[in-house]
Amino acid sequence: MQIKEVIQHLETLAPTTYAEDFDNVGLLVGDPNTPVTGILVTLDTLEIIIDEAIENNCNLIISFHPIVFKGIKKFNGNNYVERVVMKAIKHDIAIFAIHTALDNAIHGVNDMICEQLGLVNRKILIPQSENIKKLTTFAPVTEAETLRSKLFEAGAGTIGNYDNCSFSSEGIGTFRASEKANPSIGKIGKMHHEKETQIQVTYPKHKERNILKALFNNHSYEEVAYEIITLENNNQNIGMGMIGELPESANELDFLKHIKNVFKTGCVRHSELLGKPIKKVAVLGGSGSFAIQNAQRAGADIFITADLKYHQFYEAEKQLILADVGHYESEQYTKNLIVSYLRKKISNFAIILSDKNTNPIQYL
Length: 364
Hints:
Layout: H1 3-13, E1 26-29, E2 39-42, H2 47-55, E3 60-63, H3 80-90, E4 94-97, H4 99-103, H5 109-117, E5 120-129, E6 132-140, H6 144-153, E7 167-176, E8 191-204, H7 208-217, E9 226-230, E10 234-250, H8 252-262, E11 269-270, E12 278-287, H9 292-297, E13 302-306, E14 321-324, H10 327-331, H11 334-345, E15 351-353
Parallel strand pairs: 2-3, 2-15, 3-4, 12-13, 13-14
Antiparallel strand pairs: 1-4, 5-10, 6-8, 6-9, 7-8, 10-12, 11-14
Helix pairs in contact: 1-11, 6-7
């Protein structure tokens, strides 16, 4: 198995095309054509993780956080980022980062948090927009059904919880082939009228390459007419954060203690208690202060996230409780998710869960 084959599985779980613009995801170090000897999964890539990979004969590290966020002009080993990259290259160890691609995945970071808390009726808190596209094309009436089916097989025609969705209308297409053409229908130099079906299908943008391949491979015309536009619809299966419900309402203080236990954190920083039970819970792993108002609008009783600043706790506005469980703590189950997923996809292969705690924050 080559590194690129492992990446294909990861792209199915969390397409990197949905990562945030500021992020640096994908294969950061290494050649995708390299055969894999073993896979080590970690939250952060530090020197101790490189050493762990060497010890376990793993030449591919799958890291949640990217070791490189911005451009590096020198590799002198003057900081931990340079030392990690230099050591990885020296020992032929590849590094793949998944970060906000997995944050935005429906079965990613935040779904794992919901799973740990036992939340039901889950949905994305901040759905992404402008990542649903619509393809419009035209085909001879006699070929339309076959082409439509091939587009569905390639991943087109999905809208939320529905698939095989399309719209069709019939009309007359006209064209005239030049002397350089090789028409499958009609004759060179002659005006041709053809009964055609207009086919429209939507699709998530990460599937565009496969859908266009299906279009060109299954269309009889030498020149295929098509149009692609980006829709403004929210994609309910892609986005930041999640919101769900507890099976039964819980006392505020009891639930905060439960959170502390679930995330094994040394401290839960929270806004003032409101004297009402907790039922609706919003979560966002990592730095989630930008989603406070989204949690409020969604009617959450509590919003669990990390890295909240002093004044941001005022933004609770007595509408909900803000709970900061710590950055590492909120994302710690991510590596378990990746390992579990890959072990289902890749059997009889060494996929190791790192046993190193890479949390840079210590509690007294």
